[in-house]
Write the structure tokens for this entry.
Amino acid sequence: MTAAVLITNSSDDLLIVRPANDDAPWQLPGGIVEQHESPLDAARREAREELGLDLDIQVHDLFAVEWLQATRPDRRDRFAFLFAGPVLHPADTDRITLQRDEVNAWRWATRAEAESMLHPAIAVRIVGPLQTPAHAVYRETRYEGTL
């Protein structure tokens, strides 16, 4: 399982992070859900580890859940949880402290910029209003004929 968080500013720009591996595309703050950890706790932990921010993400902030079919026989199917995070103000962004072994940069991106900079599988999860989803979205990603 993975968990990520959508963080915006007052202009509805999206906070994205650049992984420490410069070859990787920009991502949303988040990562792997550890053993005995809930997806919600993982989203909070990843934001704290990657950005140095303690975000008040709650259960009702669930934005989307996606089941992803394994792409190779030696892989397992997985779930990706996406939570709607807070609107950050300039004072909040002044407190961002990157964990350099995980991410080496962050920036604000418009929705169009984010769609072109994020991995396509992540970009398709970002639909509808970013802060107050009326309901969570469930998606399935299948890779027919790959196993």
User: Anything to note?
Assistant: The two ends are 20 Å apart (CA to CA). The helical segments are 39-51, 90-93, 111-117, 120-123. The mean pLDDT is 87. The chain has one domain: 2-141.
